[in-house]
């Protein structure tokens, strides 16, 4: 989606919210929801602020000691979330919503070097200096449980009920049992601009790496809205396989 396209959809009332997201150290999307008009008037050209502790926490969002850029001793200030307008796109699974990934910089314009996106950009720049380019395809697998996220939490994530009770890889019958969820994910990803190749109890997409983040986010969102829980876990129970996330 181009910025002019977003502006037209905002004026027509089709979009009223923009998700501005960064990638944290765990590969999760973190950020804020913005009024679309404010995004167009202020954030698209100047960025928005976010607390630098977002790159200095563990998986439970607890601050971790030992980071030079953010600590209790130095204080937790802000960095700038600078929109990468090349990532601007619709979010079909949220009504009236678009999303945009952001690069992270300090207030003097210098990059936050520890940011995962900035690390990737430096790697791509080194390839370009050598006359090379990088092409990547991503493959993401997840497990669907009939428990909701709330039920799984209450059970301590034990004794969960999988959508299928046996190994059913490539089974069209087994896939049909969760097709309402899988269809929603498949169509939502297509609506967000991804090239979706196939589904077979997992969803595969091959595109740019930043789109993989959208794919990681959607199974959980779709499942939370539809009922069952989609979980990106390793080996969830003895004797069962876990999920895999691969880049080709």
Mean pLDDT: 81
CATH topology (level 3) name of the largest domain: Ubiquitin-like (UB roll)
Rg calculated over all Cα atoms: 20 Å
CATH superfamily of the largest domain: Glutamine synthetase, N-terminal domain
Low-confidence stretches: 202-216
Outline the biggest β-sheet: 6 strands, mixed
- How far apart are the termini? 26 Å
Q: What is the global morphology?
A: globular
Structural domain tally? 2
CATH structural class of the largest domain? Alpha Beta
> Could you estimate the helical fraction of the residues in percent?
25-40%
Structural class: alpha+beta
Q: In percent terms, what proportion of residues is strand?
A: 15-25%
CATH architecture of the largest domain: Roll
Summed up, the helix count is 7
Could you tell me the number of beta strands?
Answer: 12
SSE pattern, N- to C-terminal: HEEHEEEEHEEHHHEEHEE
Topology:
Elements: H1 3-12, E1 17-23, E2 29-35, H2 36-46, E3 48-51, E4 78-83, E5 89-90, E6 97-105, H3 116-129, E7 138-140, E8 143-145, H4 149-154, H5 172-177, H6 179-191, E9 196-199, E10 203-205, H7 209-226, E11 229-231, E12 245-247
Helix pairs in contact: 6-7
Account of the protein in words:
This protein has 248 residues and is α+β, with helices and mostly antiparallel strands. It has two domains: 3-129, Ubiquitin-like (UB roll) (Roll); 138-247, no CATH class. It has helices at residues 3-12, 36-46, 116-129, 149-154, 172-177, 179-191, 209-226; strands spanning 17-23, 29-35, 48-51, 78-83, 89-90, 97-105, 138-140, 143-145, 196-199, 203-205, 229-231, 245-247. The strands form three sheets. Strands 1, 2, 3, 4, 5 and 6 form a six-stranded mixed sheet that branches. Strands 9-10-7-12 form a four-stranded antiparallel sheet, covered by helices on one side. Strands 8-11 form a two-stranded antiparallel sheet. The chain starts with a helix and ends with a strand.
